[in-house]
Please model this.
Amino acid sequence: MEEKGISQAVIGRLPRYFRYLGELRDKGVERISSQELSRLMRVTASQIRQDFNNFGGFGQQGYGYNVEFLYKEIGRILGLDKTHHLIIIGAGNLGQALGNYINFERRGFILKGIFDKNPALYGKKVREIEVQPMDRVEEFVRENDIDIAVLTVPKSSAVEVAETLAANGIKAFWNFAHVDLNVPEGIQVENVHLSDSLMKLSYNLERYNKEQENG
Model:
């Protein structure tokens, strides 16, 4: 299937399709039309068809979509048919919360190690994984086939940490630090700014309140 030139907007919707299809599969639903999926997800049926057509379509005229097949195909497109080994850098509250989130492993993201520069955290266990000092991370990455690093460190140290990890084989970063990373071309970065999401929610709440006042 041709997957080049797919917009980030389409890619951004794929995990949501995957989640809804997984819920439908768990309920025993075998097939679904774009109209039915549209009502569930509040995405237009035409948008759904356009999104899926980027990857070959998946549906049959008069039949709709086979839920199990579509779920597996979107999972494959998202790379969820493979196992990814990840580490967490930063064992504070956020790092520990992410480490305790077991759904990652159900999607093939296997937590292998947690690192921090605070000696008070060394040996603390997050789901039986002990926090290790940062001076061990380079060797650990090389020896354990780690491809993803989750950064929950302050922005003052995130860039240096990312550069070190990239030089030792990390291929992707899930970045919770509020800073742009300087990484070589080809290394993937997904930035997560929690405060940005909260401000977007605040904007939508404010807009709704004004509409109620005026209407």
About this structure: The chain is about 45% helix and 15% strand.
